[in-house]
Every structure is written in C-alpha cells, then in structure tokens.
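Action item from last week, closing it out:
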Amino acid sequence: MLEDLGHMGTPSSTGLMISRATVQRALEDDSPLFLDDWRSYDGRYHQPQRFFRRLEDLEGALISCDAWAMEPGEYLTRYAALTGDFEGLRFTVDGVRPRCWRDVWWLAPACRNSTDCFPCLTGSASGYNVILAEEVMQKAAFWHMPLALGVAHYNGSSDFSSLVLSQRDVLFMFWEPSVEFQAVDPMFVRFPDFNETQWAFNVMASKREATWPITVVSNELAQLAPDVRVLLQRMLLSLEDLNQMLQFSYDSLERFDRCFSCAARSGACQWLRAQGTDAIWKPWIPKKGACFAGQGMYSITERRFVGSRGDDVICVACTAGRFSRLVQDEMGDTADCRPCAKGYFQPSSSAVSCDPCPMGRFAASARSAYCESCPIGTYQAKEASSACVDCPIGMTTWGLEAFSFFFCTCQEGWYRIGLESNCSECPAGMHCPGEAFLPQQKAGFWAYTTNLIQRDPNVAVVSVGSLGSSGVLYGPPYSVYQCRNELQCPAGEVMTCAKNRIGQACGSCMKGHSAQFDGTCKICDGESLWPVFLMLFVSLALLPLIVAAGLIMTKARRTALSVFMVSLIFGQIVVCLQGLDAIYQLDLTWKDPAKAILAALAVFNLDLEFSCLLPPQSYTVEYVLKLLAYPAVVFITFLAWLSTRCSKHAVPFNAFVNVHGLFVVALLTALSLTVVRPLQCRSNPNGLFTVSSRPDLTCWETEEHQTLVVFVSIGILAYPVTILSCIAYLTRKYPIWLRSGGGIKVMERYRFLFARFRPERYYFGLILSVHNLTVAVIPAALVAFPALQVGIMGCVICSKLVAQILLWPWRMDLANYNDAALSAGLMTILLLASPLLNIDQGQTRQSVAVLLSCVMILLPLVAIFIAFAVVLARLRPQSKFGAFLCHHKAGAGALCRFFKLVAKKYVNINLFLDSDELDDLARIFDIVKADTRSLVVVLTSELLHRMWCAGEIATAHKHQIPIIPLYCDDFGFPDASCIATMESVWSEEQRGTLVSHGISMEDIKAAYRSLRTLPGVDLKRRWSLEAQEDAVLQVLTAVYERGPRVEVATAPSVKSAKVLVCVTEEAEAISAGFILQQMVQTKLQTVTFLARTPEDVFESASFALVILSKGILEDCGFAQILLAIRRASVALVPVNDGSFDFPGLEFYQQVQEGNLVIPGLAPNQGPPLARAFQALLSILALPMTPHASIGILERQVDQICQRFGNWDDVVERSSSVKSSSRRPMSELEDAMEEEMKEIGGCQPGEIMTILFKQ
C-alpha cells in the first residue's frame, strides 16, 4: 500500500515543443512568424515549412507506419470520427491503420496533396503506444498544420532524442521538467487554454491539462520513519530547481555506468551543494517532537504513544484504531494519538478522526481498527454503538449485521402472534417451527386457542401476555392437553382430532359412535355393544361354574384335580394380564406392536366404553354403571342359584360363594383399577390435571369430577377395602377355624381363598391380594411421578416373586413354576419398558434423585443398625421364650404338647417344651434363668418329686421368674412336713447334681412354699376340648398380663365329623387324642372329633382313628365305642402311641367266650367285641408319639393322613360301601373281603390299607 504525500510544488506540462533557436530565427526572418504560437502553423495563411528540416533528412531513423503501436481500433477510429479525415487512414481486414507517405510519414490534411510538410517527431517505447500521436494528429487537423508525423524509437539510446538533438529544426512531442533536450533549449508551442469539456469528449484541440507530480511513499513510512515522511511532505521544488537537479543527475549518468538511481542521488547532492545556503532545505526538516496531523508523540523508551514531548519522543504516524489530534504546548504546535472511543473505528494509520460504526455493527472496546458484525440473534439500529441489542428471548436473526428489530424472528421452539410482539416459548406438546409459522400440536396432544379479551375485534394480536398499544389485553394463546394416546390426537393444526372424535383432548366419540382400536370412532352397530354382551356372558358363564363347583364339592371326582389345576393356571394368567395392564397405565411412551397388544387388554382391566348407550361425556353415569356391573352379575347369578334350589340337583350355597370369591380375588386388580381410575389424574402442559383414561374430564375443579370423587370413595370402601378386609379377617381366623368343627364347615365356604395354597402357607392369599391391590394403586397414587411408578412397581413385583419362591405356596408345583415365570415375565417387561419412561419433568427427576440418595444412605445405615442390634442383643440378653412348660413327661407330656398346640392356635407365643427345644439337659436351668419370661408349672401327681422339675421351680423362684401354676385333677400339694423332708425323695447323686447347678435343698423348699401361695388355673384332664382350651388361654393371659382374653373356638360338631378319634379315658390318652384330632383336622381340613362315648359315633363319619395305648382293650368305654363304630360301618385306622402291647390269641378267645371280665360290658357282647378287636388289631398300626418333638409328630401325622390317600375319593368310596343295601356287619365284611381279594388277595384286616392307597 502506498501513501500520497501531495505534489512537489511544480506542475508537469506535455505538448509540442520547438527549439528556442528555431523560434528566434523565425522572428528574425523577413516574414517573421511566432513559431511558439499555434496560429503561426496554419497552412492556409503561413508557410512555417521554411524554418524546418526537410522530410528526407530524417527518414532513415523512423519507424514504419505499420509498426506504430496505436491501438488503431480505438484511437484512429475516434480520430476519423472527430475530424472527418478518412483519407488519412487505411481500412484493412486487420483494422484501421494510418495512411503514410513513404511508409514512415503521416501527412496532415493541410499538406497531404503537396507533400510540403515540416517534420514533427514523437517516440515509441518498446511495448508501449506512440507517445501522444492521436493528440498531434487532431491538432494538425483542427488547426490546419502542414506537418508530417514521424515516429522514432525511444529507449535508453533513444533514436528519438538523437534526431531531435542532431536536426534541431523539428517539432517534437515531449514534456517538462526534463533535461533530455536541454541542449536545444526547447519551448512549448502555445495552444488555446485547456478546455475541460472538449477533453471530456476526447477532443484534443486545446492545450493538455498540466499535472502535478506527487510524492508517493509506502504507508509504513509513517511508522518506520515519520520524520522522513514529514521531510518529503514539506519538500517543494521549482521548475528551475528540478531541471537543475535533473541536469546534475544527467551529467553523472555516464560516471555511474548509467545507474539511474545512483545518478539521481548524486544529482540531488550536487544540487544541494550548489545552493550555498540552508534557507531552502532547512524548513523541510521537522522540529523534534513537533508532530503534524496524522502523527502522534511516541516514546521510544516506553514504546507507546504519549501526550507530552520528551528526549525519547519522536513523531510516529497514528496506528489503526487511533486518530491524530492537534495540540499546543510551550514549544508550539504538535499532535498526539488518541484511541478511538467505543462505537468508533479507524482501519488506517495516520488518520485524523475515527468513523462511527454503521448500523448492524459495533465496536465493543476503544482503539478498534474495525467494527464487528452483530452476531446472529442481535441487532443494532443506531450508529456508533459499542454493543448490539439482543433479540428478545426466543428470537433470533436470519444472519449477521441485523440493523432493525424487525430482523428478529422466532427461533425454533418459539412462536409469536403479530410482527411487533415478542416470541413466547412453545408450549409442551406443541411443535413450533419458528419464524412466523403458527404452532402445531404434536401427536398425543390437543391444543386450542384461548379467548382474547379485546376492545376491538378487528384489532390484530400484537402482544402475548401484555397490554398492547391498542388497549388489547392478551393471555396465553394456547392451552395444551395430553391425550390418552397418539391415535386419538394426531399431529397437525390445533384442535385436530381423530375421525369422529370431539371434546377436550379428543376424549369422547360423537353421539352414536363407538371407539375403535385405531383411535377413531365409528357409527354404532351390533359389534359396538360388546360391553353389554360381555357382562351378560360373564353372568351366564358363572352359572355352569357354580354348578360345576357344586358337583365337585358334593361328589368327589378324579377329574377335580385336573379342573382345579386348569382353573388355577387360568386364574394366574388372568391376574398376570391385569398386572400387565397396570403396567400399561404407567407414564411410558409405548410403541407398536406392544402398544396394540396392551391396548387389547382393556377388557381384563374393565376399561370399557359405553358411548353407544350413553350421551358423550356422561362420566358419572358410566362410572356408576361400572361400579354396579359386578353387583348386577352377582344378583343375576344369585337368582339363577335360587332357581337351582328347586331342582333335583340343588347347588350348595358354598359353591356360589366359592365361584364369586374366586372371581373377585382373580379380578381384584381390575376392580381396584376401575375404582381408582377417576383419581388417576395426570398433569397437562397447561397446568391443569385431567383423568388419564378420560382426558376430557378436568380433575378437582369441575363439578362432575367432584361428584366422581364421592362415588370413588364409595367404590373404594365397597371394593378394595371390603375385599381386602374380608380376606384379612378370613386369614386371621383360618388357624382357629382349622381346629374347630364349626370352622371347618365355614372353611368349605372359603375354599377359594385357602384351597389353592399349601396348608402352612394359607396366608399367601392375603399376600397375593395386597400385591394385586398395590399394583392397581401405583398408577393412580404416583401419576405425578412416572419414575417412581416404574421403580416402586418393580419393587412390588420383585418382592412378590421373592416371597413366592421362598414360600413356594401353591399346592401344585406346576402352579408355583407358572406363577414364578409370570412374575419374572412382568419384571422383564417392566425393565425393557423403562427406557420408554417419560421423565422430562424436572420434579420427577428431583424425586428420583432424592429417592436414590435415600436408598444409598439407608443401605449402610441399615447394615450399621443390624450390626448394632446384634451387638446390643448380645450385650443385653432378652427372654427367648414367653413361657417354660415345667412338667412330668410321663404324667403330662401329651398335655404339654396339647398346651403348645392350643397356644399356637390362638396367640403368637414361643413356648419352651423340652422335647422340641432341649439339646443339652445341663442347660435347662440356664434357660429358665436367662431365656424365659415366665414358668408354667403343670402340676401333676409326680411333678414335685422329679429332680429336674424341682430344679426348674427353684431356679425360677430364686431369679424371680414369674411362676404360673396349672393344677391338674390328680395333683395334691404336700404339707409342710413333707416339704421339710423333701430331700429324702432324691438320692445323694441327684442332690449332688442339683447342688452342682447352684440349687440347694433350701432353695427347693422355699420355692415349694412359695408355690403353695400362688394363684393358679385348674384343668381337669377329662374336660371337653373347649374347657381345656379355655384353661390354656387363662394361663396364656396370665403370662401376658395384658388385654382381653381370646375367645375359645367352638368345638366341632360330632354330627358333621368325617373322622373320629378314639382313645381310652386315661388322662394322657385323652390329651393324645386331642393332639391327633387337632393335627389331622389341620392337615385334612375336614371335621375331626374326639369320640368319648358311643353316642359320639354317627354314620356320617367315614373313619375312626384309634390310638392304641396301654390298657385300652380293658376299657369298657372304648369297647362300647368300638362296637358303635362297627355298627355304623366306620372304617378303622389304628395308631400306636408306643405303650400298647398286642395281645395273644388266648385274649381273643377269652373275650369271645366272655371269660374276660370288662366292667360295664354285657356277657352277650363278647363275640362281636372279639371280632371288633380282631378287625382293629389285624390292621397295620402306624406310630404316633405324643411325647416326641413336633417335627417327628408332624411326620407321623403326615404318614397317618397318607393312609387316606385322595381324601375325597376315599370318602366317596367309603360312603358307597356303607350305603350298599344296609347289610349286616358280617356280610359287609365278607363283601369288603371279596373286593380286597379282587384287588390283591388281602386279608380283611388290611381293608383300610387298600382303601387309603392313592
């Protein structure tokens, strides 16, 4: 880049020149001419030829006209057009050329015919045009000059210069200042003054305009050598000075071997010396620190611009981003460089001002060399700005350098109404493409334009959420609702619904239309009434189920097991499908085909529409109909059941209850989902809450929803609360009913709840119901927290799966495997669907974060708490047993086992019974002392004489353990003298054993004396079951010392008993009978009764369990009972308690002959009694040890029950045998013997063994 410093003080002129000698000679002629004036060259009046050389003298050094470089296509054509001299040109194929004489001279029109022309020379440098040839030709034509134009080469050894200098009397075209023709002292031929208008049209008749030679330097000179720049800028030379300087340079050219730059420096120096004074050049040199415009004072030491002069200060051109300001100080004028202010810029150096940034651009900082463009999203409508204005939030610009607010437009995700309004954020559920496009609703959402409150309906919207200049008040223009699914609300313009759908969020079908799976609605037809048909079908389908249940409950069938298995598996699948539909209710973005499959499960969730039967948006009526649907089914089936009571095959009421109970338990999830569905309100983008399944119903704010809430409360009480309460009550009463006769009959009514599970897992029905209810409640309770829905649903399903695997509750292994597989499948579906979770809500994310933090904090806290509890339990031992049963094993071992069974039946207490708990006899006193809350002393006749029992009582008394006496009917307290001599009862070794445990005789005596004073509970060993259970409960009440005593369950009725237990009237045998009765009744879940008189034997009984104990065959009461059993044709099942000795053949003979005297037995009863004894004792007796541990006893009872095989089949077969024509007992035995022989040749005594096989 170059910088123009201005002219040098002398103009440069170009034109036709002539030597001064020739002009002088023409003036001295007789006919003088002024050859320095154009008028003297007019050939019409003068003959200037006579003062010039002849043409022939110059021809040898000229260039051929064909070689003239004149761009003939332009100059010559223009010459002809201006002068009309076409004869002086040749028009050829190659273009226009000058027409020359002798190939070197172009003759002007004034002398072309006579060839009496004077020479005029010009030069042509190699590669350049002929010097001003066109101007010479025009002037010759316009002023009638008789000249001949010739062209000579002009270069370093110029022919042109040689010719002019050697011939002298010629006219030539050149310029000044120049010393090239100094020898001839040239003069310019004067022409009319410069005519600007003519020259503008390329008419060159007047004098050429003088030019002013300028000084051009590098633009970096101001920074590199500012003083030099000032020197050059001040330097002014006259024409005489220039010519003199050029002459010195010209004279030095040969000396410097024609080095023009060297000769120029030499000539300049010679000229300066020749002046002899500094008056000319000294003003050129700038003063130190005196800066001029465009410069500023610069400190060399500090390397920065300064504001005052100094020794190290020089003048430097102001750099870009600064401008020069003139100032005055004590030394005179100078200048400093100031930075451009913010909003101004200066890209050049040596500037005297800064320019303001134009609109759309800005300069953020001072000293800016250029202005930055306003970035996208900003604009600037003013000049000289230091920053751009941000477009309002949500707006951006199309490009850079926006200079008006109107360049701001909405970015994607924002919208506006009107060109002058700001943009609003796109509501959730809508798509806003930006710019001026209106928002559109996304699939799955429905939006409508809210009403605008304005004074003039013709006024366009100009603002959103503000008061416009026109007085219009605007609110949010769009209200967005979330639809039930994407099919009902397709993407498109606002208020777009699927075909034939209407209402808020497209939630209803048009009147007379029914909903379809594709989201549309079609005109109602017969197919659309399927909800009504479904209810009728369910009602009708339950009728055969009730009949089938009645048949199964009244008559055993081997197909019952298959039916039970199929119904069990089907029920599990139905429950699973309802759980799957509950998962479908979670806030997940389901995709096809999974979405279509889940939508089809609405029938299992009772999510039915009645749009063909009800007007649109009749939500309350529809909900009430759903609540009454099942009661209607119950009523219809109840009427049908009543009709069967009049038929030959009446269906029992228990069958009716079981079918509906099974139906309710299986559909608990669906019923609960239906009940709480109006409470399943989810948030919409507009902030309102709507029912998830009915998005056109606004929650909480509308009167209809408030009415629904009332009905929901009724529905919750009528369905989930009532059902779960009933199940909890039945589960709680199950253990009591199981051991009572009345309860067994009641349990037949509730087989739907307990028959599906193993007896010890009877409570799993309650666990399953709580699980199903929780699954139904989660979508409604956590509708605002989708992430918690998935997490808690997974925890619930996983907990149920773990409980099912650990408990293995179902009666059939296949059902257990199927349930585990279904639960695992639900868990897998939930895990796979979790990425589809809608978790955009910040509140949900925060809730999940808090929940995760709590879990991560609780995990170590739980571990620390457990460790602390274990350590605390070690350091602070607590009573392990609620009560310790102190008893004499031979006299009360069976009674204590019965005591423990009754306690388990009514209360949750851990009792110590040595046969169950004791591993080391030496620890028994430590257990009493440290691990027992109270000591129950079962006082029988021999108890106080037993060493270990005495030690237990003394230990409890010594360590202040509460003692509760249980007085049996054979016990009597010793007097004071007996207590004083109590040590005589035990041997020396026994007393030593007691002493080794820290128990002295005085401790025992003190304990016995204290025992006499304690209030106790009486228990008569021959009391009824209710009375003995009541005594046990009194003891347990004394142990707990709190709350009302539990009511004793009613004993089973002997008339309904299917199994009888027969024992002798000995005390321990009676207790053993009660034990067997309780355990068999629990195992078989059928009424079992302890028969103690012949009147207790009814033909309704199928089996009699006889406990063979010592002395039973000599018991008259047992003999009478056995004979009654024979008369009633009840099958016998003998059980040996280990104390029974089988008699020999002579015993039967004595009984047969009446020689064995049994008090109370008539002599004629001997033969039938002998046959009864023989029939009883010929059957293999299974062991039953009442004194054994509970584990052994349970296995023995299992073996006894296995004798019955398939209970229902055995009962049916036994009933058929008893009802066969009422034959005598002997005939009956013969028939049974023949039947058994057909089976395998068995003896009559083995009848029951065959009957009880599976």
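Closing note: Residues 452-475, 549-561, 1219-1254 have pLDDT under 50 and may be disordered.
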